[in-house]
Amino acid sequence: MGHPVLRARARPLDRGEIRTPAIQKLIDDMIETMEEYHGVGLAAPQVHESVRIFIAGFEEDADGDGETTIVPVPFINPEIASLGSEKVADWEGCLSIPDIRGQVPRHRRIRVRALDRDARPVDLQLEDFSARVVQHENDHLDGVLFFDRMTSFESLTFMEEFSKYWRD
Question: Is the pTM of this model over 0.70?
């Protein structure tokens, strides 16, 4: 937090630009960074690149054995629309604002349209945690941080206190 790129609107990518080695490497590096820091999402501005790309991690049970893994999915030039008016407040944190958590109201259900890393269209309807992650990361593309969305700062807490007093 504090780097100007985190407060700027990121620029969209042209379809042809998406397939360039530089953008493909950026996507790979973002996935690696997200996994290294055990995040569930990462936006390009968080790694000081002002382009409209974010990675969202989705839980997947590939074997059907109940053990899930996080699958990173790139979204390029995303557009988000809420599906209904229901909002839910839940805890969020951010790799750009380490060791702080707060309750943020978000739309429970959304539709996201974007391009994938091969410049193919993606059109998903998401709800609950997946919708929250996508909304959080998309906010980074518009220069918005999670506490900008908080309706009250009463829940804003350091991780140590969150673990003691707030975690269920």
Answer: yes
